[in-house]
Every structure is written in structure tokens, then in C-alpha cells.
Amino acid sequence: DTEVTQTPKHLVMGMTNKKSLKCEQHMGHRAMYWYKQKAKKPPELMFVYSYEKLSINESVPSRFSPECPNSSLLNLHLHALQPEDSALYLCASSLNGGATNEKLFFGSGTQLSVL
Amino acid sequence: GENVEQHPSTLSVQEGDSAVIKCTYSDSASNYFPWYKQELGKGPQLIIDIRSNVGEKKDQRIAVTLNKTAKHFSLHITETQPEDSAVYFCAATSTGANNLFFGTGTRLTVIP
């Protein structure tokens, strides 16, 4: 299994809703990432988990809350989002503990629309 | 921090022709340069990467060249096919850095 699986593929939510994005990989990778990608832009790093511990938080607003229940799962909890948070949210994983000079495997993303 | 510039932003080629995408970087400490292909509705997929101890790397129709002195690297796709149509991102980073710095992307269209 060489896939990173993200659910849901699409999500529409209001500004008062609470929702969660899920990501799963069974490649034995020890680092997992959340990226945000706006249309026609490159991905922007949000969070990195290394060996199930949060190692990088790129100054992301607290309305985004990551969680890594185990080495195969990564969640992103969303609360009180703004319309400008609408974007494609990508999960990625890499083999070792999050060294940036190693290969990233991306999921297909969750297309989020905030109304 | 690192700054990666990518050109062109859009590129159209006839099927069977070659395509070249160029990137420059600013941080001389950068030592890892991956290229990602992103098709519509999908996440980026690594297609080739190169490390700073190598000047060129090839994988079938895809090749990447690196000029450390000039701080630029390029992606070469030969014998292009319609399925090569996608957005391509270059990136750069260094050992110990906390981020992978992406270029702004190139939308490649291969015309049948």
C-alpha cells in the first residue's frame, strides 16, 4: 500500500460548524504533514508530526487543530473557520522523522468550502 | 529563508516535443531538489528528485539537471504525451530546514 488516503474529498461548512478532516497511511511512515493549497498556488506547510509528536506549527490560527492519534492517522479539526480558509487541504507523509530532504507522499486532498 | 522562482508559469507544447521548466533558488545551503506533478483534482506526486552531489538524473522521459554554482535546476520532459499535461512544481530545501520551499508552478499543456 503506497497511498495516503484523505476523507472526505469535499466538504462544505458554515462558519459556526465544527468538522474534521482525516488522513491515513499504512506505509510505516513516521512523519505526517498538513498542507493548505489555494487555487493556482503551491502548497503551504501548516503542521508536521514526527513520531506522533507535533514538531512544526507554521503559525497557523487556532481554529485549525491537528491531532495524531497514532503513527498511521492524522486529523485536522476545524472550528469557526472563515471564508478565506476555503482551499484544498493536503495530507502528506514521509518515511523518517520529518527531515525535509526526503520524499513526500501526498494524498488527493479535501476541497474545503467555507460559507 | 529560501526563495524559489519558477518559469514559465504556463507552457504549451505539441505532442512529441520536449518541455523544459526552470527554477532558481537563493539559499546555497539547499541540497535537495524534488519535482512534483499535480493533476487536476489530485495531490502533488513526486516524479523525480536530485541531490546536490549529483549534476543530472534521468528516469525514462524525465530528466533533471542541477547547476549549484548558478543555483538553478531544470526539468526536462522528452517525447511529451497528453497525459503529461498537469501543473509541475519545483522545490528546494536543505538538511535541517523545517520546510520544503515550492516554486510557483508551471501549467504544462500537451496538445495532441
Describe the secondary structure blueprint for this structure.
The complex is a heterodimer of chains A (115) and B (112).
Chain A: E1 4-7, E2 10-13, E3 18-25, E4 31-37, E5 44-50, E6 53-57, E7 64-70, E8 73-79, E9 87-94, E10 105-106, E11 110-114
Parallel strand pairs in A: 2-11
Antiparallel strand pairs in A: 1-3, 3-8, 4-5, 4-9, 5-6, 7-8, 9-10, 9-11
Chain B: E1 4-7, E2 10-14, E3 19-25, E4 32-38, E5 45-51, E6 56-59, E7 62-67, E8 72-77, E9 86-92, E10 101-102, E11 106-111
Parallel strand pairs in B: 2-11
Antiparallel strand pairs in B: 1-3, 3-8, 4-5, 4-9, 6-7, 7-8, 9-10, 9-11
What is the mean pLDDT of chain A?
A: 92
Number of helices of chain B: 0
The main sheet of chain B comes to: 6 strands, mixed
Radius of gyration of chain B: 13 Å
Give helix and strand order of chain B, one letter per element, not per position: EEEEEEEEEEE
N→C terminal distance of chain B: 41 Å
- How many H/I helices of chain A? 0
Mean pLDDT of chain B: 95
Q: Rough shape of chain B?
A: globular
User: Which structural class fits the helix and strand makeup of chain B?
Assistant: mainly beta
Classify the beta-strand content of chain A into a percent band.
over 45%
Helix content of chain A: under 10%
Percent of residues in helices of chain B: under 10%
Query: Biggest interface: chains and residue counts?
Result: A-B, 22 and 24 residues
Protein architecture, described:
In chain A, a hairpin with a 6-residue loop joins strand 4 (31-37) and strand 5. With 115 residues, chain A is mostly beta strands. In chain A, the strands form 2 sheets. In chain A, strands 2, 4, 5, 6, 9, 10 and 11 form a 7-stranded mixed β-sheet that branches. In chain A, strands 1-3-8-7 form a 4-stranded antiparallel β-sheet, with no helix packed on it. Chain A is globular, with a radius of gyration of 13 Å. Helices cover 0% and strands 56% of the residues of chain A. The model of chain A has no long low-confidence stretch (mean pLDDT 92). Chain B has strands at 4-7, 10-14, 19-25, 32-38, 45-51, 56-59, 62-67, 72-77, 86-92, 101-102, 106-111. In chain B, strands 2, 4, 5, 9, 10 and 11 form a 6-stranded mixed β-sheet that branches. A 5-stranded antiparallel β-sheet of chain B has the order 1-3-8-7-6, with no helix packed on it. In chain B, strand 9 and strand 10 (101-102) form a beta hairpin. Chain B is globular and about 40 Å long. The mean pLDDT of chain B is 95.
